[in-house]
Design goal:
By secondary structure, this protein is mainly beta. It has two helices and six strands.
């Protein structure tokens, strides 16, 4: 297996500040992996379950500690399932993460202040 790609595994922990708010802190770990496309069957099955598969990242199992976010080439991907293979390998099946899209606002809606989120 070619492990020439580098990804960031991102975990999030929370600390409490002086007024009791939970403040998230990200921890990043770089690992070498093999990047693969998802199979047609995986794409279909995951799509049926509401996921939009992007990549499969294959790495050494000891490098993975349950992180749910992967960063690859400047984009973040969420891990929706894993598969433990032979020879201490683990496959991370991911989908692209994205923020909420803001609705387009027409000039009329801005004047009337009647913008709704759809």
């Amino acid at each position: 297996m070619d492990r020439s790609n580098v990804i960031n595994l991102i975990s999030e922990t929370y600390t409490q500040d002086s007024i009791g708010q939970h403040i998230p802190t990200e921890t990043t770990k770089q690992v070498f992996c093999d990047v693969r496309s998802v199979s047609r069957a995986e794409w279909f099955d995951a799509g049926r379950d509401g996921f939009k598969p992007s990549y499969v990242f294959v790495m050494f199992r000891p490098d993975y500690s349950g992180e749910l976010v992967v960063e690859f080439e400047g984009k973040r991907y969420g891990v929706y399932r894993t598969y433990v293979g032979r020879n201490e390998q683990i496959e991370l099946y991911t989908e692209e993460k994205g923020g909420r899209q803001m609705p387009e606002v027409t000039q009329n809606e801005q004047q009337n202040n009647t913008v709704t989120n759809g």
